[in-house]
Structures are given as C-alpha cells and as structure tokens.
Amino acid sequence: MDAATATLIPLEAVEPAMIEHLLDRAFGDGRHARTAYLVRQGTEWLPGLSFAMLDEDALLAGTIQVWPVALTDPGGRRHPMLMVGPVAVVPERQGEGFGQALMAAMTATIDASARQGAAPLPQVLIGDPDYYQRFGFAAAPPQGWHLPGPFERHRLMVRCDNPAVLPDEGTLGPWIG
C-alpha cells in the first residue's frame, strides 16, 4: 500500500507521545540537538498547518509540523515566517509518498488561505533541495541568513511568492510574543 490509501488528519488529533515516538524513529535520539530545533525553540507547532497521515490500517505513518518563526534583520525588524518540519515518516513506510502527501496538504492549505485574501507568510525549512524544490522551495535568497546552530547553507530553503521582499541578511529564530 502507499499514501494514496492513507488518511490525512489534523496533527492535534494524535496523542503527543505517538508523535514523539514517530519522530524518534524517523530521526533518532539526537534530533533535539539539530539546528531546526533551536530555530523554533520555545514555540508550539501551528495546529491549522500541521498534519498526520494514517496508513490503510489506521496506524500513524507520518507527520508534518509548521512553526512560527521570524527573521530579524540587522535593523532589529522582525519578519514573521513559517518553519516547515520536521516532515517525518516511519522508516518502514519511507519512499511510499507519505512525505509528499503531507507537504502537498500543508502547501495547499497555505495557498488556499492566500486565495481567500490572507497574506501568506514565507515558509522556510532546512532540508534536501532536490526533494523540496518540487514544492516551490528555493535556496535563494536566504544566503545571508544566520541560524542559532550549524547548517549547510544550500539546505536552507524558502517558499515565497515574492522573495525580493525578504531581507538579504538576518537571524532566524522563534517567533515569541
């Protein structure tokens, strides 16, 4: 079976312990030391943009979380953004399309909101460019951005209708307040 027979549900409908177990299985015990965790530290994922996929047997197969973050430019101005990830799929179901279905659901939700008149926030993630480009993410312009931990610059990606409005320099961190 594959993601075509799966069920998309709001992530808030899943027990937090099940989410943590899936993330541990997908990324290992050291996942909390990753830079992405530091960027969103102290925030909570956004229920309206975070989803889970249940496989054909109603077992949790994957999750996607979206977090409020901000890019603080050199002048101290904060530019709100959405940080995508982790996108996690249990190891035995990877390669079956669950991650793609989760990304498609999240981007469709953001795009639908924009069509209804809401100003879409830029989305940022740290991930594989070959994978995330198909969802509209690009490595430019965040080449002058800084994060609170190590990262490979080419893996810092943004999805935005008009990247020219984004600052060339800044520090990415949690949106608190």
Question: What this model shows, in words?
Answer:
It is a single chain. This protein is of the alpha+beta class and 177 residues long. It has a single domain, classed as Aminopeptidase (3-Layer(aba) Sandwich), CATH 3.40.630.30. The protein is 22% helix and 28% strand. It contains four helices and eight strands, in the order βααβββαβαβββ. Strands 1, 2, 3, 4, 5, 6, 7 and 8 form an eight-stranded mixed β-sheet that branches. β4, α3 and β5 form a beta-alpha-beta unit. The longest helix is centred in the middle third of the chain and has 18 residues. The mean pLDDT is 92.
Look at the structure and give the mean pLDDT: 92
The portion of residues forming beta strands comes to: 25-35%
Number of strands: 8
If classified by CATH, what would the architecture be?
Answer: 3-Layer(aba) Sandwich
How is the main sheet built?
8 strands, mixed
Number of helices in the DSSP assignment: 4
Helix share of residues? Answer: 10-25%
CATH topology: Aminopeptidase
Helix-strand string:
EHHEEEHEHEEE
Task: Detail the poorly predicted runs.
Answer: none
Domain count: 1
What is the terminal-to-terminal distance?
43 Å
CATH superfamily: Gcn5-related N-acetyltransferase (GNAT)
Radius of gyration, taken over Cα atoms and rounded to an integer in Å = 16 Å
Q: Can you tell me the overall shape?
A: globular
Report the top-level CATH class. Alpha Beta
Overall SS class: alpha+beta
InterPro entries: Acyl_CoA_acyltransferase
Keywords: Transferase
Pfam families: Acetyltransf_9 (PF13527)
GO molecular function, one term: transferase activity
